[in-house]
Request: fold
Amino acid sequence: MKSQYVYFGKKGYHTEVPGTDETTTAVTVALQANEGGGMLPGDQAANQANGTNAVHVFVRKSSDGGDGTRGSGYGTTDENGLTIVSANPKDTEVVRVPDLGFIWSSQTLQVQNVAADAVYGFDMESDDVIWMIDSKRDATSPPHLAIGADICVPMSNYLGADAVAFSGTHYDGSAIDVASLKFKAAKGSATDDVVHLLCTAGKFKEVCEVMEEVANGNNYDQAITMHDLDEAGVTTVYQGFADRGITIYGCIIEMAAV
Amino acid sequence: MQTRNNLYFNDHATIDALGIATTFPSDRLISIHTTGANAITVCFFDMDNDGDDNDHVALTLTNESTNLLDSQTRRRIMDVMASLANSTNRDGFTLVTDTINGIHADADILSSAITKS
Reply:
């Protein structure tokens, strides 16, 4: 019996408000479980060259009225195109903290404060928001060459989709929901493997349409790439998502060892 | 009438013991995953009908010169597996690996290792 095959490659994505007003200590964010963000970054010492780690770190100031302090190396334009003053952060500004400005230890991110790094440090405040997003497929952000990095599955093993709320937005302010796509478990047991698509909010029905579309595709010679992030940082997304106004922000593959 | 296709794997120089040559019905293929730089694992529902475990075949692929090329080869062989699983071979089965005769379905598939639960 023929079945259309689909392929998903992971892209880790995690955001939270650390809730720490950084004055003398660094803000830390723990990523203890794959399901928490789809990535388990390896340890990285301080002052590594930019691009060492595949996880990009972004910080957005929140509207608490305080400005904190930022290093001198953040230039004059933020990630959303706003004009900024590097060392004088204002509400809503989003900057990417380069590898030079943070360390990883046991899946815990630590943004350096300005006292430790006058160029790329960032004295975050308690309601600032932080994002950690895979920028490429890389050994520094496992699962890389192991279970959880990708899945190629016949649509005949598709069990259904669940709509899940996501606590947070993208750094450009876009609302996000999660569509959890469930497939028969590779282990062969009575459970499921789940692909969590972090996508444009309010588009669950459209995601279900896409799954229906590919299930009834007529391309039996290859698997359809639904989402992939390669080693060069190039993202490939099935056109049916864009056609329906869906942006994929992250792709987390939750499954047991086989 | 349903047309079924079976995928044949032989990972050994003989066919005289359990788990060194098998055919799996392609509609029992669960999923395929990256498990190494030049390795993918193809999972099947257990042929002993054990609902707690799978049978799987690890395919060793060409070890390319860069991680990106490795990734592209793994992805292409997943396409090959999808195509083989969807093919129909009236002569009996679709061959993926045949170590005895040195025949593999694709030049980038170097060897296979069958694990029965």
Residues 5-11+144-254 of chain A form one domain. The mean pLDDT of chain A is 89.
